[in-house]
Amino acid sequence: MVKLKDIAAAVGVSNATVSRVMSNDPSLSVSADTRRAIIAKASELKYTPRRARTEVQADRSIMVHVGRWLGGELEDPYYAGLRLGIERCCFSQNIQVSITSDESAILDFLKKKASGAIVIGPVQGEFQRKIETAKGRAVMIDAPRNSHTLDNVFHDLYGATARLLDDLWEKGYRRPGFIGGESKYKASLPNETRHVAYSEWMERKGIFDPALVCVKGSTIDLGFESAMKLLESAMPPDVIIACTDSMAIGAYRAAQSKGLEIPKDISVVGFNDNPASEFLNPPLSSIRLAPEVAGTSAVEMLVEQLGGRDVCKSVVLQPKIVWRASTR
Questions:
Q1: Bridge partner residues of 61 (DSSP)
Q2: Where does the record place the HTH lacI-type domain (predicted)?
Q3: Which sign, positive or negative, has the C-alpha torsion 129, 132, 136, 141?
Q4: What residue segments make up the domains of the chain, in order of their start?
Q5: Of 126, 143, 167, 293, whose CB has the highest number of CB atoms within 10 Å?
Q6: Cβ contacts of residue 227 below 8 Å, gap of 6+?
Protein backbone atom coordinates (compact mmCIF):
# COMPACT_ATOMS: atom_id res chain seq x y z
CA MET A 1 0.00 0.00 0.00
CA VAL A 2 1.46 3.35 -1.04
CA LYS A 3 1.94 5.85 1.79
CA LEU A 4 2.52 9.59 1.89
CA LYS A 5 6.17 9.05 2.79
CA ASP A 6 6.67 7.09 -0.46
CA ILE A 7 5.45 10.07 -2.50
CA ALA A 8 7.50 12.49 -0.40
CA ALA A 9 10.69 10.47 -0.93
CA ALA A 10 10.12 10.24 -4.68
CA VAL A 11 9.49 13.98 -5.12
CA GLY A 12 12.02 15.17 -2.54
CA VAL A 13 9.69 17.01 -0.18
CA SER A 14 8.46 16.46 3.37
CA ASN A 15 5.62 14.15 4.36
CA ALA A 16 3.74 17.18 5.67
CA THR A 17 3.96 18.94 2.30
CA VAL A 18 2.56 15.90 0.50
CA SER A 19 -0.24 15.57 3.06
CA ARG A 20 -1.24 19.23 2.73
CA VAL A 21 -1.15 19.12 -1.09
CA MET A 22 -3.28 15.96 -1.18
CA SER A 23 -5.79 17.49 1.24
CA ASN A 24 -5.88 20.70 -0.82
CA ASP A 25 -4.78 22.90 2.09
CA PRO A 26 -5.35 26.52 0.88
CA SER A 27 -2.85 27.92 3.41
CA LEU A 28 0.06 25.90 1.99
CA SER A 29 2.72 27.99 0.22
CA VAL A 30 4.26 25.73 -2.43
CA SER A 31 5.14 26.27 -6.08
CA ALA A 32 2.76 25.12 -8.81
CA ASP A 33 5.49 22.88 -10.21
CA THR A 34 6.00 21.13 -6.86
CA ARG A 35 2.25 20.70 -6.44
CA ARG A 36 1.93 19.18 -9.92
CA ALA A 37 4.94 16.90 -9.31
CA ILE A 38 3.34 15.57 -6.11
CA ILE A 39 0.00 14.96 -7.81
CA ALA A 40 1.65 13.25 -10.79
CA LYS A 41 3.75 10.98 -8.54
CA ALA A 42 0.71 10.10 -6.40
CA SER A 43 -1.17 9.06 -9.52
CA GLU A 44 1.82 7.12 -10.87
CA LEU A 45 2.09 5.19 -7.58
CA LYS A 46 -1.72 4.74 -7.50
CA TYR A 47 -2.02 6.37 -4.09
CA THR A 48 -5.52 6.29 -2.56
CA PRO A 49 -6.33 8.52 0.45
CA ARG A 50 -7.15 6.50 3.57
CA ARG A 51 -10.58 8.00 4.10
CA ALA A 52 -11.47 7.42 0.46
CA ARG A 53 -10.88 3.71 1.10
CA THR A 54 -12.97 3.47 4.24
CA GLU A 55 -15.51 6.26 4.60
CA VAL A 56 -17.73 6.35 1.53
CA GLN A 57 -21.48 6.52 1.30
CA ALA A 58 -23.04 3.62 -0.53
CA ASP A 59 -25.66 5.82 -2.21
CA ARG A 60 -23.16 8.38 -3.54
CA SER A 61 -20.93 6.91 -6.18
CA ILE A 62 -19.36 7.94 -9.48
CA MET A 63 -18.11 5.72 -12.28
CA VAL A 64 -15.45 7.06 -14.63
CA HIS A 65 -15.29 5.79 -18.21
CA VAL A 66 -12.00 5.92 -20.09
CA GLY A 67 -12.00 4.80 -23.72
CA ARG A 68 -9.94 1.76 -24.68
CA TRP A 69 -8.43 3.87 -27.48
CA LEU A 70 -6.42 5.78 -24.88
CA GLY A 71 -4.23 2.75 -24.18
CA GLY A 72 -0.81 3.77 -22.86
CA GLU A 73 -1.77 7.45 -22.93
CA LEU A 74 -3.47 6.89 -19.56
CA GLU A 75 0.02 6.95 -18.03
CA ASP A 76 0.52 10.49 -19.37
CA PRO A 77 0.59 13.12 -16.58
CA TYR A 78 -2.45 14.82 -18.15
CA TYR A 79 -4.67 11.80 -17.53
CA ALA A 80 -2.99 11.25 -14.17
CA GLY A 81 -4.05 14.79 -13.26
CA LEU A 82 -7.63 14.15 -14.36
CA ARG A 83 -7.77 11.04 -12.19
CA LEU A 84 -6.29 12.84 -9.18
CA GLY A 85 -8.73 15.72 -9.54
CA ILE A 86 -11.68 13.34 -9.69
CA GLU A 87 -10.50 11.13 -6.82
CA ARG A 88 -9.53 14.00 -4.53
CA CYS A 89 -12.85 15.79 -5.02
CA CYS A 90 -14.76 12.54 -4.44
CA PHE A 91 -12.68 11.92 -1.31
CA SER A 92 -13.50 15.37 0.08
CA GLN A 93 -17.23 14.74 -0.42
CA ASN A 94 -17.29 11.07 0.66
CA ILE A 95 -18.21 9.82 -2.79
CA GLN A 96 -17.12 6.38 -3.96
CA VAL A 97 -15.38 6.31 -7.36
CA SER A 98 -14.63 3.45 -9.75
CA ILE A 99 -13.03 3.35 -13.20
CA THR A 100 -14.00 1.27 -16.24
CA SER A 101 -13.53 1.10 -20.00
CA ASP A 102 -16.70 -0.98 -20.42
CA GLU A 103 -19.44 1.04 -22.13
CA SER A 104 -22.21 -1.32 -20.97
CA ALA A 105 -21.05 -0.95 -17.37
CA ILE A 106 -21.48 2.82 -17.60
CA LEU A 107 -24.96 2.51 -19.11
CA ASP A 108 -26.04 0.07 -16.38
CA PHE A 109 -24.52 2.33 -13.73
CA LEU A 110 -26.49 5.34 -14.97
CA LYS A 111 -29.72 3.54 -14.17
CA LYS A 112 -28.88 3.60 -10.46
CA LYS A 113 -30.40 6.27 -8.28
CA ALA A 114 -28.04 8.95 -6.90
CA SER A 115 -25.19 7.82 -9.14
CA GLY A 116 -23.40 9.61 -11.94
CA ALA A 117 -20.78 8.99 -14.61
CA ILE A 118 -17.79 10.91 -15.93
CA VAL A 119 -16.76 10.07 -19.49
CA ILE A 120 -13.22 11.00 -20.49
CA GLY A 121 -12.32 11.67 -24.11
CA PRO A 122 -14.26 11.33 -27.35
CA VAL A 123 -16.82 8.56 -27.74
CA GLN A 124 -18.60 7.14 -30.73
CA GLY A 125 -21.92 8.77 -31.57
CA GLU A 126 -24.00 5.71 -30.71
CA PHE A 127 -22.52 5.46 -27.21
CA GLN A 128 -23.08 9.17 -26.61
CA ARG A 129 -26.71 8.86 -27.71
CA LYS A 130 -27.19 5.95 -25.30
CA ILE A 131 -25.76 8.07 -22.48
CA GLU A 132 -28.16 10.89 -23.37
CA THR A 133 -31.18 8.58 -23.42
CA ALA A 134 -30.20 6.67 -20.26
CA LYS A 135 -31.66 9.56 -18.23
CA GLY A 136 -28.78 9.26 -15.81
CA ARG A 137 -26.38 11.95 -14.69
CA ALA A 138 -23.21 12.31 -16.73
CA VAL A 139 -20.40 14.76 -17.45
CA MET A 140 -18.10 14.58 -20.47
CA ILE A 141 -14.43 15.64 -20.32
CA ASP A 142 -12.55 16.54 -23.53
CA ALA A 143 -15.37 15.18 -25.68
CA PRO A 144 -17.10 16.62 -28.78
CA ARG A 145 -19.33 19.48 -27.70
CA ASN A 146 -22.34 18.57 -29.83
CA SER A 147 -24.72 17.57 -27.04
CA HIS A 148 -27.39 19.85 -25.63
CA THR A 149 -28.25 17.48 -22.77
CA LEU A 150 -24.86 16.52 -21.29
CA ASP A 151 -22.59 18.64 -19.12
CA ASN A 152 -19.05 18.96 -20.40
CA VAL A 153 -15.63 20.21 -19.31
CA PHE A 154 -12.95 21.07 -21.84
CA HIS A 155 -9.82 23.12 -22.44
CA ASP A 156 -9.99 25.78 -25.15
CA LEU A 157 -7.26 24.11 -27.19
CA TYR A 158 -8.33 25.87 -30.39
CA GLY A 159 -7.98 29.29 -28.81
CA ALA A 160 -4.73 28.36 -27.06
CA THR A 161 -3.19 27.17 -30.33
CA ALA A 162 -4.20 30.39 -32.10
CA ARG A 163 -2.78 32.52 -29.24
CA LEU A 164 0.45 30.53 -29.35
CA LEU A 165 0.81 31.12 -33.09
CA ASP A 166 0.07 34.83 -32.66
CA ASP A 167 2.79 35.08 -30.01
CA LEU A 168 5.29 33.11 -32.08
CA TRP A 169 4.63 35.43 -35.02
CA GLU A 170 5.28 38.44 -32.79
CA LYS A 171 8.56 36.81 -31.75
CA GLY A 172 9.62 36.66 -35.39
CA TYR A 173 8.87 33.06 -36.34
CA ARG A 174 7.61 32.71 -39.92
CA ARG A 175 7.53 28.95 -40.63
CA PRO A 176 5.85 27.21 -37.69
CA GLY A 177 5.53 23.44 -38.12
CA PHE A 178 3.08 21.08 -36.45
CA ILE A 179 3.43 17.47 -35.32
CA GLY A 180 0.41 15.73 -33.83
CA GLY A 181 -1.54 12.56 -33.26
CA GLU A 182 -3.99 10.88 -35.58
CA SER A 183 -7.59 10.54 -34.48
CA LYS A 184 -9.94 7.80 -35.55
CA TYR A 185 -12.66 10.12 -34.23
CA LYS A 186 -12.12 12.84 -36.81
CA ALA A 187 -12.25 16.41 -35.50
CA SER A 188 -13.02 15.14 -32.01
CA LEU A 189 -9.78 14.47 -30.19
CA PRO A 190 -7.98 17.36 -28.45
CA ASN A 191 -5.01 16.63 -30.74
CA GLU A 192 -7.27 17.11 -33.75
CA THR A 193 -8.52 20.43 -32.36
CA ARG A 194 -4.96 21.70 -32.24
CA HIS A 195 -4.38 20.54 -35.79
CA VAL A 196 -7.50 22.31 -37.06
CA ALA A 197 -6.57 25.52 -35.22
CA TYR A 198 -3.04 25.42 -36.66
CA SER A 199 -4.23 24.78 -40.23
CA GLU A 200 -6.85 27.53 -40.16
CA TRP A 201 -4.42 30.06 -38.64
CA MET A 202 -1.80 29.27 -41.29
CA GLU A 203 -4.40 29.59 -44.06
CA ARG A 204 -5.52 32.98 -42.73
CA LYS A 205 -1.90 34.12 -42.87
CA GLY A 206 -1.59 32.74 -46.39
CA ILE A 207 1.42 30.61 -45.45
CA PHE A 208 -0.03 27.10 -45.07
CA ASP A 209 2.45 24.49 -46.33
CA PRO A 210 1.62 20.76 -46.03
CA ALA A 211 5.36 20.08 -45.76
CA LEU A 212 5.24 21.75 -42.34
CA VAL A 213 2.72 19.24 -40.96
CA CYS A 214 3.16 15.61 -39.91
CA VAL A 215 0.37 13.76 -38.11
CA LYS A 216 1.38 10.27 -36.97
CA GLY A 217 0.81 9.76 -33.25
CA SER A 218 1.58 11.23 -29.85
CA THR A 219 4.49 9.14 -28.51
CA ILE A 220 8.14 10.14 -28.13
CA ASP A 221 9.19 7.84 -30.99
CA LEU A 222 6.53 9.20 -33.34
CA GLY A 223 7.48 12.70 -32.29
CA PHE A 224 11.03 11.92 -33.38
CA GLU A 225 9.87 10.53 -36.74
CA SER A 226 7.50 13.44 -37.37
CA ALA A 227 10.08 16.08 -36.46
CA MET A 228 12.71 14.39 -38.65
CA LYS A 229 10.33 14.57 -41.61
CA LEU A 230 9.85 18.30 -41.09
CA LEU A 231 13.54 18.99 -40.51
CA GLU A 232 14.53 17.11 -43.67
CA SER A 233 12.11 19.02 -45.90
CA ALA A 234 13.42 21.48 -48.50
CA MET A 235 12.29 24.44 -46.38
CA PRO A 236 12.22 23.26 -42.74
CA PRO A 237 10.29 25.06 -40.00
CA ASP A 238 11.85 27.58 -37.64
CA VAL A 239 9.71 26.31 -34.74
CA ILE A 240 7.96 22.98 -34.16
CA ILE A 241 4.66 22.87 -32.27
CA ALA A 242 4.14 19.41 -30.74
CA CYS A 243 0.66 18.36 -29.62
CA THR A 244 2.10 16.80 -26.43
CA ASP A 245 5.25 17.24 -24.39
CA SER A 246 6.12 13.61 -25.18
CA MET A 247 6.23 14.46 -28.88
CA ALA A 248 8.30 17.53 -28.05
CA ILE A 249 10.90 15.27 -26.43
CA GLY A 250 10.98 13.33 -29.70
CA ALA A 251 11.52 16.63 -31.54
CA TYR A 252 14.45 17.40 -29.21
CA ARG A 253 16.02 14.08 -30.17
CA ALA A 254 15.46 14.76 -33.86
CA ALA A 255 17.13 18.16 -33.60
CA GLN A 256 20.06 16.61 -31.76
CA SER A 257 20.47 13.90 -34.40
CA LYS A 258 20.59 16.60 -37.09
CA GLY A 259 23.20 18.56 -35.18
CA LEU A 260 20.79 21.44 -34.53
CA GLU A 261 20.86 23.58 -31.42
CA ILE A 262 17.63 24.53 -29.61
CA PRO A 263 16.56 27.35 -29.84
CA LYS A 264 19.36 28.80 -31.98
CA ASP A 265 18.64 26.61 -35.04
CA ILE A 266 15.14 25.29 -34.29
CA SER A 267 12.65 26.09 -31.53
CA VAL A 268 10.18 23.66 -29.94
CA VAL A 269 6.90 24.14 -28.07
CA GLY A 270 4.85 21.39 -26.42
CA PHE A 271 1.40 20.95 -24.93
CA ASN A 272 0.42 19.85 -21.38
CA ASP A 273 3.42 21.32 -19.50
CA ASN A 274 4.27 18.05 -17.77
CA PRO A 275 6.31 18.33 -14.55
CA ALA A 276 9.46 17.19 -16.38
CA SER A 277 9.22 19.92 -19.05
CA GLU A 278 11.22 22.48 -17.09
CA PHE A 279 14.04 19.97 -16.53
CA LEU A 280 14.71 19.26 -20.20
CA ASN A 281 17.82 20.81 -21.78
CA PRO A 282 16.87 23.46 -22.66
CA PRO A 283 13.68 23.78 -20.56
CA LEU A 284 10.63 23.31 -22.78
CA SER A 285 8.15 26.07 -23.60
CA SER A 286 4.73 24.47 -23.26
CA ILE A 287 0.99 25.12 -23.05
CA ARG A 288 -0.07 24.41 -19.47
CA LEU A 289 -3.39 22.60 -19.11
CA ALA A 290 -5.31 22.13 -15.87
CA PRO A 291 -6.34 18.45 -15.78
CA GLU A 292 -6.83 18.39 -12.01
CA VAL A 293 -9.20 21.36 -12.26
CA ALA A 294 -11.05 19.59 -15.10
CA GLY A 295 -11.48 16.46 -12.98
CA THR A 296 -12.62 18.44 -9.94
CA SER A 297 -15.07 20.47 -12.04
CA ALA A 298 -16.60 17.30 -13.48
CA VAL A 299 -17.30 15.91 -10.00
CA GLU A 300 -18.74 19.22 -8.80
CA MET A 301 -21.04 19.34 -11.84
CA LEU A 302 -22.29 15.83 -11.08
CA VAL A 303 -22.96 16.81 -7.47
CA GLU A 304 -24.99 19.76 -8.77
CA GLN A 305 -27.01 17.36 -10.93
CA LEU A 306 -27.57 15.11 -7.92
CA GLY A 307 -28.84 18.20 -6.13
CA GLY A 308 -31.47 18.81 -8.78
CA ARG A 309 -29.88 21.03 -11.45
CA ASP A 310 -31.42 20.06 -14.79
CA VAL A 311 -29.92 22.75 -17.05
CA CYS A 312 -27.01 21.65 -19.26
CA LYS A 313 -23.74 23.30 -18.25
CA SER A 314 -20.28 23.70 -19.82
CA VAL A 315 -17.00 24.64 -18.16
CA VAL A 316 -14.27 26.04 -20.43
CA LEU A 317 -10.71 26.07 -19.09
CA GLN A 318 -8.19 28.47 -20.62
CA PRO A 319 -4.67 27.00 -21.07
CA LYS A 320 -1.65 29.13 -20.17
CA ILE A 321 1.45 29.57 -22.35
CA VAL A 322 4.60 28.98 -20.30
CA TRP A 323 7.66 30.36 -22.08
CA ARG A 324 11.01 28.73 -21.38
CA ALA A 325 14.38 28.45 -23.12
CA SER A 326 13.30 26.22 -26.04
CA THR A 327 12.05 29.35 -27.82
CA ARG A 328 13.81 32.63 -28.53
A1: 96, 115
A2: 2-58
A3: positive
A4: 1-47, 157-288
A5: 143
A6: 179, 214, 240, 242, 247, 250, 251, 253, 254, 255
Strands 151-155 and 314-317, by their bridges, are parallel
Q: Cβ contacts of residue 100 below 8 Å, gap of 6+?
A: 63, 64, 65, 66, 106
- Predicted confidence band of residue 209 (pLDDT cuts 50, 70, 90): very high
The pLDDT tens digits of the residues spanning 149-199 come to 899 999 999 999 999 999 999 999 999 999 997 654 444 444 588 999 999
Q: What are phi and psi of 76, to 5 degrees?
A: -65, 140
Q: Are 140 and 297 in contact (CB under 8 A)?
A: no
Euclidean distance between CA atoms 246 and 154, whole angstroms: 21
Query: How far is residue 254 from each of residues 66, 168, 226, 228, 266, measured CA to CA in Å?
Result: 32, 21, 9, 6, 11
- CATH T-level fold of 157-288: Rossmann fold (3.40.50)
Residue type, 320: K
